[in-house]
Amino acid sequence: PPPPRAPSPDGRGNHGSMCMKTAIRVLAVLGGTALLAGCYDDDNEVTVHEPGVYKGDTDPLLNKDAEARAATLEERFNLVQTDR
What are the tens digits of pLDDT across the range 32-42? Predict the structure, then answer.
């Protein structure tokens, strides 16, 4: 037979505090695992640097003529610089 359980602090056989401690420990381990999983970095997402080679998306402004490009850039500048 299993050994008798120690009496609970409230004297009524309620061992809820032990169950709560176990639940807190399990939640802490699961939370830590979730946080570490969020830091996972897949090797396929790495862009290898090559000097002088741009690997990003093409700039849509390059398709415009010089005047249209200047007007678009001036609009962008005025959107963020007017408060200064």
Answer: 988 888 777 66
Write the DSSP assignment of 7-66 as a string of letters.
PPTTSSS--HHHHHHHHHHHHHHHHHHHHHHHT---GGGPPPP-TT---SPPPGGGGS-H
Matching residue, tokens 């699961």 = 30
Angle at 13 between CA 8 and CA 15, to 5 degrees: 60
Say if residue 45 is exposed, middle or buried (CB neighbours under 10 Å; 0-12, 13-18, 19+): exposed
- Backbone phi, psi, residue 5, to 5°: -80, 150
What six digits make up the tokens of 73?
């850039």
